[in-house]
Amino acid sequence: MINGYRNKWIVGSGQCVALNHKCYTLHTNNYTLLCVSLIFIFHFSFFNSLYGQEVRYQSDSSCGCDILYVDGFETLRDGDLYGFRRYDGKVIVPPTYKYVSTFRDGYCQVWMDDTLAGLIDTSGREILPPHYDFVAPPSENRILFAKNNLYGYADLHGNIVVPPRYPQAGPFQEHRAPVAVVVDSAFLLCSFIDTLGSLLFEPIYENVMPFSGGVAPVRRYDRWGLIDTLGNEILTTRFEQLSTPDHGTFFAGDENGMALYKVIKTSSHQDIKSQNLEVPKSRSLEVSPVTPPHYLPYTTVADGRIGVTRVTTGKQGFLDLDGREVIPCTYDEIGRFVQGRTMVRIDDRYGIIDTLGGIVLPIEYQNLVNSGEKYLYHDGLALVEKDSLLGFVDLDGNPVTERLFSRAYAFSDGLAAVCLDGRWGYIDTLGQPFLPFIFDLAAPFKYQRTEVWFNNQRYTIDTQGRCVKNCNGIISFR
Questions:
Q1: 3-state class of 71 per DSSP?
Q2: How many helices and strands (H and E) does the chain possess?
Q3: pLDDT tens-digit readout, 305-359
Q4: Which of 27, 62, 65, 382 has the fewest CB atoms within 10 Å, i.e. the most exposed one?
Q5: How far is CA 436 from CA 127, 382, 420, in A?
Q6: Which neighbouring-strand residues pair with 239?
């Protein structure tokens, strides 16, 4: 939900994350954003930064450790400097930089020192040399950068397309980028530019959000509205709160209640007579409320359902994209749909329902044992609890294990760590034992690796049970 953006957004500074024998350092400078929301809000948790990227390990006998490759590249370290080596062993960048990020879509941010940033590609070529205050990953073939506290844009060859002239700016989305412009030598107001740097609309807004589905939230006089790609206010700036458009819908209202709106395409003269250059630009989108202002949004759209809280009762349920309350607001807690299923709670009892509100798992289960994510599907199975014992159910709510466990974690990489009679082991998605119940402690797999404790010694194993680190002569636990 968009509200409270009068506060400053601050980007965190560099962090170093240890992983096996490597130390991956991620860094950025501090910047204060007053006008453009959600532009530089980066989460520098290492594993979260790998979302959607290919991650694999290779055992290295020379160091007795695993080497982590992200999108086919390993981070090299020599003292306090970092570089990259390809999966085939070729060094593309010798340790040169003080800080590096990870490759994403063929590009990687690098820093020569605490202040100078640049961008390299997978050949090691410096697209932008590390001479800049800030460099962002490319977005729609444009690279956002800052020099002397002003922002500009370069193309993928490193050519400066828009010189640094904006005190604040954000990445391109739907061929438009939000920027802040100095007005009357004193005020910052926001608008959007195209990929060549032309200002598209008069800068009149205190705050703007990126375009999504042809519309963008804007704020004026502390009230939110919506514009289309031509700059038309298709929803006037009159709302205290406005949610980010999602699948052509959004909520608008205040803390006392919000209505669901739908973005509707309409025909326009420009659409009908696109060859007539004399036809003036006119709007082709409209918005219309599809519910009364009785709700507060709770989840984003998933499987065509939007989780909401009914203001008058505090109970939760789901709307469809047309605003129909397809699952009545009768629950004390709901989750977000995954694979057509979600968790629901009434009082202290949990269950699982489908997108039509049908009961998949009766609402009679518990959440007392502190053990993993329950009632959420991973690898097609959900961890559930009853009478302080844990098991797994499939998408139809059928149990997949004959025995129940005192402790368990949700499935990952096709295996789940479970505890039986005081010993830990791993089961597969058929509920069959895969690694024996011999461990003192066990943890979920991540990127085909996990740590286990056996006879008070810690080992790193892969998903086949082979020891890959701290092995002490053990080859496999399977």
A1: coil
A2: 2, 47
A3: 999 999 999 999 999 999 999 999 999 999 999 999 999 999 999 999 999 999 9
A4: 62
A5: 51, 22, 10
A6: 224
